Amino acid sequence: MGMGDRSAAVTRETAETAIELTLAIDGDGEATIDTGIGFFDHMLESFAKHGLFDLTVRCDGDLAIDDHHTIEDVAITLGDAFEEALGDKRGIVRFADRRVPLDEAVGSIVLDVSGRPWFQFEGTFSQQQVGEMTSQMAAHFARSLAMNGGLTLHTSVEGENAHHEIEALFKCLGRALDDATRIDERRSDTPSTKGEL
Known about the structure:
The chain has four helices and ten strands. By secondary structure, the protein is of the alpha+beta class. The chain has a single domain, classed as Imidazole glycerol phosphate dehydratase, domain 1 (Ribosomal Protein S5, domain 2), CATH 3.30.230. The strands form three sheets. It has a four-stranded mixed sheet with strand order 1-2-4-3, covered by helices on one side. It has a four-stranded mixed sheet with strand order 5-6-10-7, with helices on one face. Helix 1 (38-51) runs parallel beside helix 4 and helix 2 (68-86) packs parallel to helix 3. The chain is globular. Pathway: Amino-acid biosynthesis; L-histidine biosynthesis; L-histidine from 5-phospho-alpha-D-ribose 1-diphosphate: step 6/9. This is Imidazoleglycerol-phosphate dehydratase.
């Protein structure tokens, strides 16, 4: 069974942010990111590189206030893009279980592309801030992605350096979403006894 064109272009405009985002699930890991938050841009590039997603993100956010709305709204838009690009989810693997290390840090994810949003996070970030990104926003990014992408997402981090902890989490998220959204050539239907996800 062929994959078809599993891509999406999504825009989101509120009083807080204006976002243009494109996603190709079956890409080469190419990313063009501009959110105004350097470390967040780096994390999205890492997510795309390790998930082999082609991703463009342009966000004009209210950074004069803080990083919250920009990071949250990019995650919402990315979740919408995954939901749109996956369509009826026919033929996907659906589940993934990944651990990714970065030096002393480890990010862990158990994922189900279930259509039933759920999020759980365990761990703490060792420093409050990395560059212009509030560390805790990494978990909030994952939560917002799960809620809008219809993902059951269990995540955890451990380590001693917040840069490493956050980067391990984003890399792990990319790898897990790549695993779960891959086409299983043995399957021609939607992977659910209900017949839909």
